[in-house]
Amino acid sequence: MTAFPRAVKLAPSLLSCDFTRLGEELQAIADADWAHVDVMDGHFVPNISFGVPILAAARRASPLPMDVHLMVKAPERYLRDFAGAGADGLTVHVEATAHLHRAVGMIRELGKRAGVTLNPGTPLEAVRPVLGDVDLVLVMSVNPGFGGQKFIPESVERVRTLRRWLDELGSPAELQVDGGVTPANARLLAEAGASCLVAGSSVFGPDGAAAGLARLREALA
């Protein structure tokens, strides 16, 4: 029996998969809870990843819920396009928009799960005004923009703080963690209050995504 009070969802990050085999990679993670889609614009973060066509292809290839993390400036410009391409949830950065309440409302109006996140160096207070309005809060445990980064240990305390705030509100919102998540720290994050873990390189490894996903599940057992 787990030592934490909630089931923990696993959301493999497609940023780390082999895009020449996208359909096969999605099949390999078929028993995951969500597929996490990192969208980068080369402005809000220095890297560029992929956009609407890749999400649409993933949507056609898999029934998994598509959890889209928009690391883009002025995300309001793209919400409708990504919703139409198959996103089930859309997460925006507090640093990327001057109108956070508006962005969250737009996502809700599109009928999608509304998420909010912030960079490791941004005070948690920045998300507090919208905690009662969102379906998901994402703790970035690396600086966004690149896969395969080392986990920032201070992120655990940020998870604990946000879990307390959400519980005080009686909020059912998911508390997600993304960045450097591995079997070595998965249980610690779950015990701190995380309800969803995003993992890229620790899932899509040399022995295949199915094996990587199984290792994460074992760490949470």
Q: Could you describe the 3D structure shown?
A:
By secondary structure, the chain is α/β, with parallel strands linked by helices. The protein has a single domain, classed as TIM Barrel. The protein has seven helices and eight strands; from the N terminus they run E-H-E-H-E-H-E-H-E-E-H-E-H-E-H. The chain has an eight-stranded parallel β-sheet. The mean pLDDT is 94.
How would you concisely characterize the structure shown here?
With 221 residues, this protein is α/β, with parallel strands linked by helices.
Q: Tell me, what is the CATH class?
A: Alpha Beta
- Structural category is alpha/beta
* Number of helical elements: 7
Provide the helix percentage.
25-40%
Low-confidence stretches: none
Sheet with most strands: strand arrangement: 1-8-7-6-5-4-3-2
Q: Overall 3D geometry? A: globular
Count of individual beta strands: 8
Radius of gyration: 16 Å
In the CATH scheme, what's the topology name?
Answer: TIM Barrel
How many domains is the backbone divided into? 1
Mean pLDDT, all residues: 94
Order of helices and strands: EHEHEHEHEEHEHEH
Q: Please, what is the CATH homologous superfamily?
A: Aldolase class I
CATH architecture: Alpha-Beta Barrel
Largest sheet: 8 strands, parallel
Distance between the termini: 7 Å
What portion of residues belong to β-strands?
15-25%
